[in-house]
Amino acid sequence: MTFAGTPKAIDLSHHLNKLSLSRVASPLKDIIKYMHEPGMISLAGGLPNPSLFPFGELRARVYAPETDLRSSEEHCSPIEFSIPKNASPSHKNTLSAALQYGSSYGSARLSSFIREFTSHVMTPGYSDFEILLHSGNTDAWNKVVNILCEFGDYILVEEHTYPSSQALWAPMGCKGVPIPIDKDGLIPEALELVLKNWDQTFPRIKKPHLLYLVPVGHNPTGATLTLERKKAIYKICVEYDIIICEDDPYYFLQFPPYVLQSQRTQEESGTAPSDIPVEHPNSSSELDGQAYVNSLIPTFLSLDVQGRVIRLDTFSKTLGPGNRLGYFVCNPLFAERILRATEVTTQAPSGLSQALIEELLISWGQEGYLRWLPGLRDSYTSRRDWMCDLIAKYFDLVPSPANIVDDVVAVQKGHGSTKDAVPYFSFSFPKGGMFAWIKLYLPSTSTYQNMKATSPSNENATAKWAEAFWMDLIKEKVLLTPGSYYTPIIGSGINERMPLEPDVIFFRLAFSFETREEMEVGIERMANVFERWWS
Ligand SMILES: Cc1ncc(COP(=O)(O)O)c(C=O)c1O
């Protein structure tokens, strides 16, 4: 499908690496097109005979898209479907095909569903974008690095970055160039400064040409990029000829702003049992699919008029990570190069997974999927609220002073109104995703002062303190993810990390998994540990 007046992708072939430029089509895949010619008897392919596959039929019972995921009541009537072994007028999807070697593009029916969805929801800014299925964003990022990066390249990353993304390129001797972020995501001015001063800061070193970021519900910080920042970042990337890889697993989990329980209306906070979630003004029960789409911050893809954005979408957070299924949206040249690499590596995502998700989405329809997603968003919004409410219950939250960019500072319970309240940590209420990110202020603890007095450097004291504090949390049976896991690798060894900010450390808290009761026990235990360490 092309859109009148919409530009086509520009030539970005100079971004491809040597490996990708020299890759040729797999001869085995080339032969497939002839197999489907009418009258052809193929003695060529090594396809196993489907009559010998042991699976006769796949039956599934799935939630209806309008299911109220926040209700503890019995879910409304499920939808059932089956995938038979062989085609019939009522069944296009078959196990014979799903279990056979297939096209590296992925299922044509599923791709076409995704294309329609992407055109409607993301409205890409150029017309000849391609959809290519992959086995999840982890697989997809591997393929992006595989076509774009040379050994030793510098890659632009957020100053706290998703660890498995860098664990992929670190063994290639690549290095991260950390760009500062705050609660609204990557700071465009900081990106521009790095690129403008590159030749002075890194003389004779090849300029980075790839920016990796997680724009919504950032992992680990929970930050969500504003549209203004996305526009500014895109403009800078055009100016400096940077490819943007938007790894966006949390795109559909964009929340309304958090309102403290004490400031919600009677009706909102009121008498309902604590496990019944608060309904926000734009929760799905009041929204149709289009209003939900309108409530989402547009993607980089929608701003992209040149084809310089590689968008990674995954079903991991919307339909389950075990499906190992997602899709690229990118320009035709990159799609073709990724396809060539896919043919000789993963070949295609699991056929069973494709068949199952295809059947699910086609039985829901476009409208149904656009009912499912806001319902899911509401459910995670409630979880975000639980966590923020619980932090407010076990700590006092005070407004941040001017030198702290976070929304609030947490202090000891009962001390919020005292002048000398000592900051434990600051954080911002997440506007998307699954994580809250807390920044701890160590100088006011005597343990830290003692460690500083006996350590060779401040950084050493910070790291030692962080380890001891984390161990104490674990002893108390509450597990948080240490912020140091997300520190960019800036040297040629995996341990050569960006220097730590002095006197502060970070932890990531996930609100995606535990029940409200478990979350409460966890936050209470966390508060006990803070009290001990700050006493
Ligand atoms: C930023 C980011 N990228 C990628 C992934 C992995 O996605 P997938 O399951 O699609 O491989 C995650 C999962 O936590 C993530 O947070």
TrEMBL record:
Keywords: Aminotransferase, Pyridoxal phosphate, Transferase. SUPFAM superfamilies: PLP-dependent transferases. Its cofactor is pyridoxal 5'-phosphate. This is PLP-dependent transferase. Residues 264-286 are annotated as: Disordered. Pfam families: Aminotran_1_2 (PF00155). InterPro entries: Aminotransferase_I/II_large (IPR004839), Class-I_PLP-dep_aminotransf (IPR050859), PyrdxlP-dep_Trfase (IPR015424), PyrdxlP-dep_Trfase_major (IPR015421). Belongs to the class-I pyridoxal-phosphate-dependent aminotransferase family. It comes from Lentinula edodes. Residues 98-487 form the Aminotransferase class I/classII large domain. GO terms for biological process: alpha-amino acid metabolic process. One of its GO terms (molecular function) is pyridoxal phosphate binding. It comes from the Eukaryota.
